[in-house]
Specification:
The chain has 3 helices and 8 strands; from the N terminus they run ββααββββββα. The chain is an alpha+beta fold. The protein has a single domain, classed as START domain (Alpha-D-Glucose-1,6-Bisphosphate, Chain A, domain 4). Strands 1-2-8-7-6-5-4-3 form an 8-stranded antiparallel sheet. A hairpin with a 2-residue loop joins strand 5 and strand 6. The longest helix has 16 residues.
């Protein structure tokens, strides 16, 4: 885990290298139908579109069966951020992984500093993303 300066302020980043191209991983991150496959805290999604963009809204069902509204704040340059129940939540990004073989990238989550306890959930999500992308 590392501290980063992001457009949303100082955040903690949890990252992982994935043996898949950037487009494949970006597709997983932006496809609302796939979120429950890799997101440990997402059981279901209802959304106004399948692939998110800035302004996309919907709701996610979390453990316990509770539905929470979400709104995608930004979505460009292989990075997207959202608010869940009107609270700034994780940022999502895919970067080229320099110094490793072609067709590999780095995927990660940016957490607000107060959400450091969510890092293990993000690590589990990164492992699932890698399994799906590399599969």
């Amino acid at each position: 885990m590392e501290r980063r300066r992001t457009p949303g302020g100082r955040r903690l980043a949890v990252t992982r290298e994935v043996g898949a191209d950037r487009e494949t991983v970006w597709d997983l991150l932006t496809d609302t139908e796939r979120w429950p496959e890799w997101g440990p805290s997402v059981r279901a999604v209802e959304c106004d579109r399948r692939y998110i963009q800035a302004g996309t809204t919907g709701r996610v069902r979390v453990p316990g069966g509770i539905w929470l509204p979400f709104a995608v704040a930004t979505c460009r340059d292989y990075r997207w951020t959202w608010r869940v129940a009107r609270v700034p939540a994780t940022g999502h990004f895919v970067e080229p992984a320099e110094g490793i073989k072609k067709g590999t990238c780095r995927v990660g989550f940016e957490l607000p500093l107060y959400a450091v306890g969510y890092a293990p959930v993000c690590r589990r999500a990164l492992d699932r993303i890698a399994d799906l992308a590399e599969g």
